[in-house]
Amino acid sequence: MREIVLDTETTGLDPQAGHRVVEIGCIELVNLVATGRTFHVYFNPEMPMPAGAQDVHGLSDDFLADKPLFADKAAEFLEFLGDDQLVIHNAQFDIGFLNAELERAGHKKLSNPYIDTVSVARRKFPGQRASLDALCERLGIDNSNRVKHGALLDSELLAEVYLELSGGRQRDLGLAAEGTTTVSTTLVVANRPVRPARPHAPSEAELAAHAAFLKQISDPLWLKTE
Q1: What are 150-164's pLDDT values in tens digits?
Q2: pTM to 2 decimal places
Q3: Sheet of 33-42: strands edge to edge?
Q4: Res. 193: pLDDT tops 60
């Protein structure tokens, strides 16, 4: 199963208020293993970077000035995603921003199935913090390089978090039903061949072989109990 772990960085919190995507980082997983394929792009947001947003991700106006526009990379981004399942932390935030950018660039909105790891974490650890940093700490994942938010680094960390939330590297021993999209630690076995029932009565040859074997045993225990 192919999945794409995805994260974005933005100029703010509300795409409807005109805030824009400034970075996308994606990592390809196949059967919960990173393949090494990534999609990572910085974008010129065509607006000044608010100080609060820059404090979060460190991306300045000068750094982004010569970067491509989202519209220039939208087709390449969609091709990388394909129709496969997305793995996103706080999915509604990222999907809302990406759909706004895609609509602005004349593309259809995303229709990929997705897993929101915030929702998964809240079900798994009710009442506890579900931020990416908190989950890294709880699950023993090294996030010491995460001084500021970064879409590709955060996707790498999220991929490790997702793996642990899914039950680790042996989540289903590779036997999960094809097309399964829910995270579960339950072993699912699919497409196992149906074998005919074995006969219960022994054959004449089996009875003879058993009798011959018993003759080789001296002083058997079962004779003492009769």
Answers
A1: 899 999 999 999 999
A2: 0.73
A3: 33-42, 21-30, 2-10, 85-88, 114-116
A4: no
Domains of the chain by start residue, with CATH = 2-165 (3.30.420.10)
| pLDDT at res. 156 | 94
pLDDT at residue 180, rounded to an integer:
38
Instruction: Specify whether 210 is catalytic.
Output: no
Q: Of 19, 149, 200, 210, which one is the catalytic site residue? A: 149
Euclidean distance between CA atoms 187 and 173, whole angstroms: 8
